[in-house]
Amino acid sequence: MTKSNISIWIWLQNNRLLKAILNADDGILKIYDENDVLILKRTGLNKIQIKQIEICIIKYGAKKLDKHEKPFEFL
What we know:
alpha+beta
């Protein structure tokens, strides 16, 4: 099993907690709501598009979670 280049971002938007999981190696974006319901999935993205998406969600005040951090410990 290989390690993937996965980033997990969370942010508040319109009084909703959203979570994005970006996999740069596979070119996949998944966005979930506060109930872990998948609301958006995009595949076939290149690394430049993944970086542009990260920049866009940072504008919403997103925080990047460490892969070993316990959930919601950053709050």
